[in-house]
Amino acid sequence: MMRIHVLLASLVALTSPAVAANTPGELVQELSRTAHDSDQKGFLAAMSASTRRAMAEAEAMGSKLTLAQKDFSTALDESFGIGLLGGAARFPIADRKAVLARFAAIDLVGVEQKTPKEARLRLKTITKNFGDQTATEEHTFTAVKENGEWKLDLSDLTHGIIRTAIQRAAAYKHVAEEVRTGAFKDRISALIALAKAQRGLRTGGAEK
Questions:
Q1: What is the pTM of this model?
Q2: Mind giving me the DSSP string for 45-78?
Q3: Which residues, 6 or more positions from 187, have their beta carbon under 8 angstroms from its beta carbon?
Q4: Each residue of 75-121: pLDDT tens digit?
Q5: SS3 132
Q6: In whole angstroms, how large is the CA radius of gyration of the chain?
Q7: How confident is the model at residue 15 (pLDDT cuts 50, 70, 90)?
Q8: CA–CA separation, 161 vs 154, rounded Å?
Q9: Cystine design at 124: which of 71, 107, 134, 174 (Cβ 3.0–4.6 Å)?
Q10: pLDDT exceeds cutoff 80 at 131
Q11: 124 forms bridges with which residues in the sheet?
Q12: Is the pLDDT of residue 71 over 50?
């Protein structure tokens, strides 16, 4: 997944009203301003209604995924003892303000007006990595006009993230059940099975 998509996906939350964006250019200005100010509510309020609904669904699915991860870790520790690999580690909720602060710049490169209420925005983003390094990327996103205001639409991206989370949660649940039935001889075998399950392969528990 592209860096910009990862960062946007981390900003899952319900929002409050944003400053009205009467043009696609004003929308990008608002996104840049809120990113610079680490204003997560304002940034996410610039998203379309369908995006915000999808983000709420993604947040709920994210909670289920975290529970599945923790249960898998518990199953490993119960079966093989406490261990560093795949052990009962913490799964912290992302600091959304810190994620937003990683945006150094969001610039509008071009606009393709599809209809009076839909446009394709070519955005250049500069994000900060750990340390002093930065990464520059260009991607095209959809903007839609809702109640006279332009909003960024990331619903397709968010639904893709939900599907991935569902698949990952199912993999954790399946392999945790196999761990508890004694299907694996050691912790490493279970972790290999998890990796296969997350790729959609059969786990095939290792003989003891």
A1: 0.72
A2: HTB-HHHHHHHHHHHHHHHHHHHHHHHHHHHHHH
A3: 76, 80, 83, 85, 86
A4: 999 999 887 666 544 444 455 677 777 888 899 999 999 999 999 99
A5: coil
A6: 21
A7: very low
A8: 11
A9: 107
A10: no
A11: 107, 138
A12: yes
For the cut 90, the answer to whether the pLDDT of residue 128 exceeds it is no
Residue with tokens 């750990």: 130
pLDDT score of 93: 47
Give the span between the Cα atoms of 137 and 26, in whole angstroms: 20
Domain positions in the chain are: 3-198
Q: Name residue 163's amino acid.
A: R
In 3D, which of 23, 27, 36, 26 has the Cα closest to residue 126?
A: 36
Instruction: Of 4, 30, 36, 3, give the one whose Cα is nearest residue 18.
Output: 30
DSSP string, 77-102: HHHH-S-STT-S---PPP-HHHHHHT
* Phi, psi of 46, deg, nearest 5: -80, 5
Q: Tell me, what's the pLDDT at 206?
A: 47
- What's at 133, amino acid-wise? Q
pLDDT at 76: 94
Instruction: Copy the structure tokens of residue 79.
Output: 């079966």
Place of tokens 């397709």: 156
**One-letter amino acid of 50:** S
Residues 6+ apart with CB under 8 A from 46: 18, 21, 27, 30, 31, 34, 151, 152
